[in-house]
Amino acid sequence: MAPSDAASKTRFLVLHDYGMGGTWWWVHARSEQEVLETFAGVEVVHTEATRAEAETWGLDEADVDGPTTPPGLAEARAERDTQRRMPGFGALAGHHLLYLSRRWDEDDDPMVYLMEVGPDGRRLRQVELTEDGMAYQSTPEDWPFNPPWVDRYDPAWVPFVIGQEEFEAHWTRAVHDPSRWD
What we know:
The chain is an alpha+beta fold. It has helices at 3-7, 32-38, 48-54, 73-84, 164-173, and strands at residues 10-17, 22-29, 43-45, 61-63, 98-104, 111-117, 123-130, 135-138, 175-176.
C-alpha cells in the first residue's frame, strides 16, 4: 500500500456473523460503505468495547485494495464481485428499514416470513404466515440468535421487498405465541 493510500484509509473491525459464531478481520478501507460494497455478508462493528477486545485477538488484516485477502474474506469478495454484475446490486443500500416477504419451503412446515429489517440486516420484527392461515409475530427476544439476514447490496433480496403497510397489516392480526420458539 502506498503511503498516500494508507493515510486515506481507516481500520475497520469486520465480522461475518453466522449465528452461533463468526469470523473477524481488520480491514483497511476509505469508508464503511467501501467495506460493505467490497465484501458480501459482513458487517462493520463499531462497539468500542468489542473493538478494544478484538485488538487482543491477533486477527488477520486486509486492505480493501490488496491483491490478497485472508480465507473467508476472499470468498466474501468473490461473492460480492459476482453480485455486482447482477441487476439490482445495491438497490436496498441506504434504506433505514426494509420490509420483506419470503416463502421458505425447506422444512416440513413451509410458510411465508414477513420481516422488518434494520439497517444492520438484522430482523426487528417478524410475522410467520402458516399454510392454514395463522399468523404469528415474534421479535428478537423470541429468537436465540439474530445474525444479519439481509445484505443490502445483495440483489437476491430485491424481489422480496414489500411495503410497510402490508407488513403492518399482517403484524396487527398476528398473535404472539412464545411457545413456538422454545
